[in-house]
């Protein structure tokens, strides 16, 4: 009997940078064992993924087709995929009251700085996007390597929190 992929939802306030990076990376790294999604607590009207985020994903050979910004309400609605793990990747979303997720998924906070913040030139922001991409890739690689197929909720919660406290390699390349 085949084990279904684990559904993982990455949350950030606007769902335009960090959560989009995490979604694309886990779908790429997860070898079919994970289905990643992303959403935001308050995406702006007509919000799109940040073009610099899409650029650094393409640089790394990670598909960007189908990535879009959306509200987290999509995943709390009837008929939405049931999540096994919900991870906030920005401090803003971590401090907000989240919807009640069907299935009572494991939860963790893995904070990353906003690579799109400020008025820096695009080349500086591009370097920030690459750094966040690489740090996320390091942590998500550990998740994929350590998570057994068909992990139960308690085991997934322990692993997600372990990865949160362990951190990731800020020098990841």
TrEMBL record:
| Keywords of the record | Arsenical resistance, Oxidoreductase
Q: Molecular function (GO) terms listed? A: arsenate reductase (glutaredoxin) activity
Lyase as a keyword?
no
Q: Which residues form the Phosphotyrosine protein phosphatase I domain?
A: 6-146
**Which SMART domains does the UniProt entry name for this protein?**
LMWPc
Q: Which CDD domains match?
A: LMWP_ArsC
Q: Which domain of life is it from?
A: Bacteria
Can you cite a GO biological process for this protein? response to arsenic-containing substance
The Enzyme Commission number assigned here is 1.20.4.1
The name this protein carries in UniProt is Glutaredoxin arsenate reductase
Q: Write down the species.
A: Tepidimonas sediminis
Provide the gene name from the record.
arsC
């Amino acid at each position: 009997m085949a084990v279904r992929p684990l559904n993982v939802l990455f949350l950030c306030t606007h769902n335009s940078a960090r959560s989009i990076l995490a979604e694309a990376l886990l779908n790429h790294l997860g070898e079919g064992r994970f289905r990643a999604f992303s959403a935001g607590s308050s995406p702006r009207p007509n919000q799109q993924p940040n073009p610099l985020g899409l650029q650094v994903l393409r640089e790394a050979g990670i598909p960007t087709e189908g990535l879009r910004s959306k509200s987290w309400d999509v995943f709390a609605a009837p008929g939405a995929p049931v999540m096994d793990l919900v991870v906030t990747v920005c401090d803003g979303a971590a401090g907000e009251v989240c919807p009640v997720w069907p299935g009572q998924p494991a939860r963790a906070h893995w904070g990353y700085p906003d690579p799109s913040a400020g008025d820096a030139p695009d080349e500086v922001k591009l370097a920030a996007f690459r750094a966040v991409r690489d740090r996320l890739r390091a942590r998500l690689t550990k998740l994929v390597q350590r998570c057994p197929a068909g992990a139960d909720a308690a085991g997934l919660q322990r692993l997600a929190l372990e990865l949160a406290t362990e951190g990731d390699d800020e020098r990841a390349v």
